[in-house]
Amino acid sequence: MSPSRTVQDPATLPLPPGRQGLPWIGHTLRYVRDPLGLFDEVYAEHGPVSWLGAAGRRWTCLLGPDASEAVFRNADHAFASGPGWSYLVGPFFDRGLMLLDGEEHHRHRRIMQQAFTADRIARSTDAMHGPVDASLDTWRPTGGFAAYPALKELTLDLATRLFMGGTDASPERMAALNRAFVDCVQAATSVVRVPLPGTRWRRGLRGRILLEDFLREHLPRARAVETDDLFSALCHARSEEGEVFTDADVVNHMIFLLMAAHDTSTITLSAMMQHLGQHPDWQDRCRAEVLALGSRPTRADHAALPSLDLVMRESMRLVTPVPVVARQAVKDTAVLGHRIPAGSFVMTAPLFTHHSPEVWRDPERFDPERFAEGRREDKVHRYAWHPFGGGVHKCLGMHFGGAEVLTVMSHLLRRFEWRVDPGYVCPIDYTSLPFPSDGLPVDLRPRPVA
Ligand code: HEM
């Protein structure tokens, strides 16, 4: 299953086969409703390398673990992240780390890494308990409780505090800031991509300006004193070579990080709530581990939550928070016997591999033990399970995100019990990152606080 280590001479190879679908929109509507069905069809017809029309472009689809490996390993530096992603997410996350390439990306990543050390993540974990508890105090357990919007509010609140902590902004200003951030995220996937009055695009541009103004206004304070929040961490981060971020870098990175952290964590939490609700045996097992710890587990305590960790991995497999990853070929290259000409827009789909029967046994089944020692189905290929991507752009926040998810789940399991009909099939909207379009109704009950 391993792709060849060297890139073949592209000029000698055939172009990928493919299909346009409808003019301009191509297969966009099908993707939004059922990306897996679409990829399955494309793979059955053409194999791992093909192209399809979507969102006004011809996208070369590189499907399966070998094709993903070729993209992420990027042996001949042919695939650029910035131009691939900016076509999809617009100008709202300009110059965020994922939108940079080459030496510039490498330099920025070296600096940013200093804000994501194990020590910092441990301190952030301790700082999460207060806001998580406060947010859960507002939950009103009931049958049909809409878990997804409640989790989204919780993670947004948490991100604003952990990322921007220490600001003295009024609750109204913070609410406006949250709104601006949501406007940017929604604008990124809007159909109308010019700033006409009343459009999401225009609201997104305004949102970006508001976020920039807010961050610039608070920069001098974040620069003056080093505190535990991410804003301050970016202001003071210094690579081993002594490189630091400019003010503009800090602002751009903060806006991107808010986006990178927020929906991905929410989706993971909501998928875990769904599956634990449908599998009470797993819910009991995870709760027993949580209750054996103190009420405010530290990052080190997370090692004592092995069942919850298995559930997190399995949930990210089944509901892959970043279903596709975008790139653009900046020179001719070759993947699995096909020529990918310079200029091609390229996507690879962790979602597809995560559901592939060529990789997983009974892939649609919720079976966290597949990740347990003795089975380790994810070890069949380096890119069997890759919700955080791979290569030089591999998610920088994966440990931070893991700490957040385990912290929130620990509080949820301690404070609540919930059930979801075992036959429930979650309707997922893939317009942007995947989310349950019905809000994920769960039957939520309080537990006596232990
Ligand atoms: C918990 C769920 C998360 C998932 C599934 C996830 C997934 C991903 C993926 C797939 C990429 C790679 C995209 C690419 O190759 O083009 C990525 C990049 C990134 N993520 Fe995450 N992410 C998560 C949480 C977070 C959090 C919490 C943060 C920050 C606090 C974060 C920060 C980043 C950054 C900075 C990058 C860009 C890295 C680079 O380009 O060098 N992510 N993430």
From TrEMBL:
Transmembrane segments: none annotated. It holds the Pfam family p450. PROSITE patterns: CYTOCHROME_P450. Signal peptide: none annotated. Its cofactor is heme. Keywords: Heme, Iron, Metal-binding, Monooxygenase, Oxidoreductase. Belongs to the cytochrome P450 family. This is Cytochrome P450. It comes from Nocardioides marmoribigeumensis.
